[in-house]
Amino acid sequence: MGAFHDFFQVILNPELFLLVGLGTFAGVYIGAIPGLSVTMAVSILISFTFSWDVLPAISLMIGIYMGGVYGGSRTAILLNIPGAPSAIATAMDGYPMAQRGEAGTAIGVTTVMSFFGGFIGIGVLALAAPLVSDFALKFQPRDYMLLAVLGILLVGSLSSGSLVKGIFSGALGIGIGAVGMDPLTFTERFTFDIPLLTQGISFIAVMIGMFGVSEALLQLHNIDLPAVRQKIDRIVPSFNTIKKHLPLSLQTSTIGVIIGALPGTGGDIAALMAYDHAKRVTKNPERKFGDGAIEGLVAPETANNAAVGGAFIPMMTLGIPGDAVTAIMIGALYIHGLNPGPMLMIDQPHMFWFIVGTLVAANFFMLLFGLTGIKLFTKIVEIPRAFLIPLIMMLSIVGAYAVNNSINDVYWMLGFGVFGYFMRHYGYPLGPVILGVILSRLLDDNWRRAIISEREDLGRFFGGLFSSPLSTVLFVAVVLIFVSQTPLWTKGKEMIFGRSNRSAS
Amino acid sequence: MDPEFRGDADHHDGTSDATPGGYADQRRPGELVFAGLMTAGSAALLWNAYGIAGFDALSSPGAIPMATAAVMLVTSVITLVRTIGLQKVAGETLAKDILPMIVLVMFVLLVGFGIALKPVGFLPTAAVFLIISMKIMARRSWPYTFAVALGSLALIWLVFRIVFTVLLPAGIVPESEFIQFFRSLVQAGAK
Amino acid sequence: MKRFALGAVSALVLAATGALAADYPAKEIQGIIQWGAGGSTDTVMRSVTPHAEEILGGTVVMQNMTGGVGAIALNYVADQSADGYTLLMGAENPLLYKVMGLGKKDYSDFVPVNVLARGTPILVASPNAPFDDYAGMMAYIKEHPGEVRFGATGPGGLPSVVTAMIETIEGDLDVISVPYDGDGPALTALQGGAIDVMPAVLGAAIEGIRAGNMKPLALFDVAKSDKLPEAPAVTDFNAAYNDYLPWGPFFGVFVAKDTPADVVEKLAGAYAEAATNPEFVELMNNRGFTMMNIAGAEAESFLSTWQQNTTWLLQDAGLTKTSPEEFGIARPGK
């Protein structure tokens, strides 16, 4: 009975309920503005809610978290600038939809699917938290490395232009991620003895530059074209649309929960992996991926919101953060006199059910705030380009600066903006660059940990791949996906099925 | 059509991030130079990566950088060789299709923004940037341009500086004194 | 233009008067936190500063500035004008920057406002490890050379200092050292069995120990802690540790060196009082930190002794890039 009371506490207490709503509302807008991150907002809230009781403080933070993960999709769809890293994949198909005047539909689908994914995540948290956290702990450095390799194979599906250029972009991204002082050995890498480079290149600066500024520069070519009129007749997707994508969204939500529960990986990787998964399993999309395929919205948005619930799993069961935001929440729980750790569930079971209840409430608020105000939001895209472009550029500059209070990040952002502008013109895909930057550390650090643990012995390393079922499964997945992307596979299929199959692949 | 090209051939200007621009079987103005620069850059990175730790150990901090730089070099050479073999796109020039005047002007304005941001401060720099760029592009009356530019700037400043306490470079504007003055005023009023 | 000029003049006037302690703080104070949001430094600073704000009667806007193992934040604060409007909220490692080749500045370019607290290192092992205490671990390592995996956090981090201490006293350890970004990720890996032993801060490991997800081998202090009485002190196994202990990471608030003395005094007063706030003391106690709350000459001498001991320990273990001697850091007298 206690659990039920704790679960509904947030709804029965008007003050807490209001705070969750307020937090979610604020979160949607924080998430939507590039440069304002949920991480930042939550850490500011720690000082702000310092003198409060723990429950209201947590309610507000959870609201902001839930809203923020969703909010990133807004600017990704409308302006092609992902408001948060987890919305990168959303921009791939969301922005083309907005360019066709279907921003309303895109936002509607995104909202409903985020709500759905959020629920799957919370459901897993509530019902299977200890199981999932045991599973997540089993991931060894070797498995994280295989996961990163799996991620890097996504280059194939993120670059619909020339595959060679895509691979180049992906490698470039990994290289960008390696710039600066190596955090494991403090060796300088790719710094060319320039002090500025030792600090490394901020991932957010690369993201805002490549997506935001380069897009704005490109739009300068069509400055006198009238803005796209947005159709807003259809916002809430029909029941049929939802039913049609139900199997896909269940799969991508599962990806989201697992990636979210792994310490060290979060919604950004989950969204990209889900996008790739969707591309792989969707046989006949109504529109091609990259041109505004609904599946390209469903997959990343279910996954990144499911990752929220996932991130709470190791936090609640082990006191281990699932991502940056839960890391700060752990700090907040300490400040409020709780000791997050494996004993929290035993010492303070009411806290667990309170957090689950709050997540549920936040998820409903997200649906509410997501489906209202769309008309107003889509008006942004109808602002004449002559005014919109300078504003996007200034927002990009402020956003890049705000992440780390660093003027250098602004220079990087501008540099990558210009670089990305040329890359777009010459057919180099930008998605793989961002993918490379996200995965760089995961791949590099865990490769080194794995090989050090095996005493630099490649034989032992490969032996280890088959000593644990988890590693074996991941390794087989890597091999299968790799083979399916190489020309060898296509040739083999042709030989077996005849030439008629060629157009299908 | 090149079987290796899996994109949408209609968009040569990079409509979205998943469908990059360019043509599969033709070369745009400047594309060859860009491919050359990428090759040279990759070679320099590979050399630099080798310098991190050489072939010291599989677990050295230079192992992954060297592997990625090698991949970059190989792919950029392939791209370069392919690009050399392509014909130029008829009717496109660098000045018209890649770097028209307005793009160059915005480059200059952005670089100016970046340079002035720290010494002069965010508020004056952003105001000047918005007013000039909006005036150039929209060609509306001065009062209208001023109103839109300053209004939107005030909104962004309020959100970032006041609500989220992001310390944007103050430069010559005594921001923190100003804010403290109002804080004291509000506190005095409350008492 | 006229408006800008006016603004500039009034800024100058205000800045000039702002330096007087009588009306300090006349504007917002920036607090630059050396480490990321959610880390121990961040938690400590965000929980003590609101109390200090109340006493000061001003606002401290706290910002996380990460990168370069904290060197970026340190250099940033050192470059601001020394008027007491920019505080550095940092941990112990800047004292190692010079010998590790990470930077040219350290706390000698600053004045300590308050050294708030210090942590205690503890050696923990995964529950499946085939040993239960420090002596058992040493014996196992001797019997199985090159098999035990120790977690590390890069040169100069707490694990490297603790390992250097063990090697100085017990002779070289033939173990595999697996690098992690920080003690959080390393302790997670310990629970998953990716590493066997990890030197960590008591506060980070205490909840895991209580739940039985990791076992304590030895507390690196001269006596047991009342927070964790089941963990034996390492000096019980080998009295030679008494020369180096107590040792531990610490947290402090600093301002640039030439800050007017009366401003420093006002800040020091505020933080000294804030650090006695019962809520804050309880929080620190819960996280296994030992309150220090020292300032002025006492803090300066603490910092220089700490730097002497640690840099020479690392130097003797061959982990430094430049000898402490080059920077005029004397070898600690025996």
Question: How would you describe this structure to a colleague?
Answer:
The complex is a heterotrimer of chains A (505), B (191) and C (334). Chain A is mostly helical and 505 residues long. Chain A is 74% helix and 1% strand. The N and C termini of chain B lie far apart (77 Å). Chain C is of the alpha/beta class and 334 residues long. Chain C has helices spanning 2-18, 40-56, 71-79, 97-100, 134-143, 158-170, 183-192, 202-210, 261-274, 278-286, 296-316, and strands at 29-33, 60-64, 86-91, 110-118, 121-125, 149-152, 176-179, 197-201, 215-219, 250-256, 290-294. In chain C, strands 2-1-3-10-4-11 form a six-stranded mixed sheet, with helices on both faces. Chain C has a three-stranded antiparallel sheet with strand order 8-5-9, sandwiched between helices. The chains are: A mainly alpha (505), B mainly alpha (191), C alpha/beta (334). Chains A and B meet through helix 3, helix 5, helix 9, strand 2 and helix 11 of A and helix 1, helix 2, helix 4, helix 5 and helix 6 of B.
**CATH architectural grouping of the largest domain in chain C:** 3-Layer(aba) Sandwich
In the residues of chain C, how many domains can be counted? 2
Q: List segments of chain C where confidence is low: pLDDT < 50 over at least 5 consecutive residues.
A: 1-20
Instruction: Determine the strand fraction of chain C and express it as a percent band.
Output: 15-25%
State the major sheet of chain B.
2 strands, parallel
What is the CATH homology-level superfamily of the largest domain in chain C?
Answer: Bordetella uptake gene, domain 1
In sequence order, what are the helices and strands of chain C, one letter per element? HEHEHEHEEHEHEHEHEEHHEH
Please tag this protein with its features:
heterotrimer; A: 2 domains; two-stranded antiparallel sheet; globular; disordered C terminus; B: 191 residues; mainly alpha; 2 domains; two-stranded parallel sheet; 2 strands
Short overview:
Chain B: Keywords: Membrane, Transmembrane, Transmembrane helix. The complex is a heterotrimer of chains A (about 500), B (about 190) and C (about 325). Chain A has about 500 residues and is mostly helical.
